[in-house]
Design brief:
4 copies of one chain form a homotetramer.
Chain A: H1 3-26, H2 33-40, H3 44-50, H4 54-77, H5 83-95, H6 98-107, H7 113-139, H8 148-164, H9 166-169, H10 175-191
The structure holds a DNA duplex.
Pfam families (chains A, B, C, D): TetR_N (PF00440)
GO molecular function (chains A, B, C, D): DNA binding
Protein name (chains A, B, C, D): TetR family transcriptional regulator
DNA sequence: CATGAATGAGCGTTCATTCAT
DNA sequence: AATGAATGAACGCTCATTCAT
């Protein structure tokens, strides 16, 4: 019987989940390991049994987050043929982890270097899809002739702006759930060339 | 004689200035009152004499920042007749306080609610100018027909994205000094209607 | 079949040996039971199965050490007829366990009372041989007329001084290997009566 | 009025004294800053206000100790013309700080490098006086022809042996108070040349 | 008004010990 | 008999805040 290993993984998962929850609520920097242990219903020391240090715990949470988001984007991207598809794929993947992703973005400068790599990883994959679809549109003259990097940054900036100001845009719930469609629609309009 | 009162205000100003400097370097959350007192050359307790708590001090600094930025925008806006003027006015005002403004944006969720009001205040004034100039352009059909609020958020998001990733875009210096013109130019192109 | 009991003793011996090794390297106070378990290749809990507590483990290690040293002295002492022989026997026995013996001496005040008994036991046996040979020398007027206990303490003190300052005398290796002969020679000279 | 500064120094002295007391009782390694704060009757944080870290506190205590001992030796040494004088000077200086000095010797390998410098400093000064007086004796052939360093180490070893085993020699009090005279007398006998 | 010494709750982390498996 | 996950008290240290001077 593997009950021991099962319980171990269970506890680890509980802590990870509690941490994710706390980080989503309070941000990474403001959350104490003490609080996470309490939320997880384990002794304070147990946190350090499974994750050697606070930093490792944060990185583990971020890693889970990053892996999940990139996987989702990857899955969805198979059917993404238009720019609209790519944008929707991006937002749908993030929406699921909205609160913690928002904190990740904001706390990033205070987080370890490895954490930044995760964010960069997420953005790389979405940038890649952006690149493909925009190059095609450019060739077909169906899009304004602007540097793709600028367009990408505009998009990311827009999304991050809504996310970091969720208190403003959606005080009690998910910003993306509310604004996703509107954001995509308007962003597409912004890029399109008038066929007059 | 009001020398006493003068001295008092002088000390207050010194602390405020020191805090601004420290916050610009280290961010709001990472800075200790101890360090600020040291930077100001006053006793630690003096900080709490002028500002009841750390929170109040932070709010005071943010308030000064907000006032200065809005004033500058207000001043410049008199001569701002085109969208380009408005954008430039905005960036120039922010550029002066780039470091601390960037930290303000990033630390905001960890700051008291009142801090958000200041940021909203800054954005209100620039939004107002946006509104005026964009409505005119819309009427003249020189601009895409998109909600002004969306355009505004796109612009702010873009700027904030560059500011919060200054480490990426401008590791050793001012992001805006480098990208200001490029950002304005590209953003204008994004909005313009093709006259074909 | 006593295989079960055999296995048990085997495990116990493994832990004991690992503990000895770790204590020799890091000292008694600085070593964790965790580390010892790892070194022994057993689970952490197993340590406490065989030795009820850290203290008991330390005592067991010290006991093994004491037994081995006293046995060696006892063996060698059969052929020790001169003071030089006794001194050499003493140092040779200690030299084999130099590292851990040095730590034992230094950590003693922080160790349980029983630990002191072991050290006293070691010294009793060597004191006994001292006594025998020195009494003879005294009778023969070949040695200064000093209390034997004083001479004994001087010798032990000298040796312990070299051992506790091994970092000074022999930064990379065994102090006794280097100084054994010199120490014996000089100590003998110190005791001898000038035959002028 | 300098009441503030006075009180500050008072508190500092209280902590230093409490630390000295605790270190003398429990040794340096076994003592917690918590306990010292309690003993001093101040808040735990206050300890770190006056001494930045545990290490600094330990070093401060050791420094006071070292300074006092070396000063005393220096003072006494003016009238020390014979070897007996030098030995007595040495022991009298140490006797005053017997317990903490004993712990210093034993905990040394676990203490910061600077702590070792203090011990070396104390021994240097006593070594210097040893050197002077022994060279003279040697010249006059009133002493055995042994390396001065060996004699010195024998003396220090002897003293340290008594100190580190105070529990054995003097369970309830000062070892040196009891054995000082005896140790000096016997050590002198050990060195003297028989004038037969 | 200004000081800065003192506070004490809080932090991340370690480790001997226990106990269900 | 052996495991190793879990515990919880203790550690050194930081820092916003208070208050006697």
């Amino acid at each position: 019987m593997k009950k021991r290993e099962q319980q171990r993984q269970q506890t680890r998962a509980t802590i990870l989940s509690a941490a994710e929850h706390i980080y989503a609520s309070n941000g990474f920097v403001q959350s104490s390991t003490q609080l996470i242990a309490k939320e997880a219903g384990v002794a304070h020391g147990t946190v350090f049994l499974h994750f050697q240090s606070q930093e490792k715990l944060i990185l583990a949470v971020i890693n889970v987050l990053g892996t999940d988001i990139t996987t989702r984007i990857h899955e969805s991207a198979k059917q993404s043929h238009s720019l609209a598809d790519v944008l929707r794929t991006h937002l749908t993947a993030i929406e699921i982890h909205e609160s913690i992703y928002s904190h990740l973005i904001m706390d990033m400068p205070q987080l370890p270097k490895e954490a930044q790599q995760t964010v960069i990883g997420i953005q790389s994959i979405i940038a890649h899809h952006f690149d493909q679809v925009l190059n095609q549109l450019k060739k077909e003259k169906q899009m304004k002739d602007l540097p793709i990097s600028f367009i990408f940054n505009t998009w990311i900036g827009l999304i991050h702006y809504y996310l970091t100001n969720c208190g403003l845009f959606a005080p009690h719930g998910s910003v993306l759930a509310i604004y996703k469609d509107e954001l995509i629609l308007n962003f597409l309009k912004l890029l399109e060339v008038d066929k007059s």
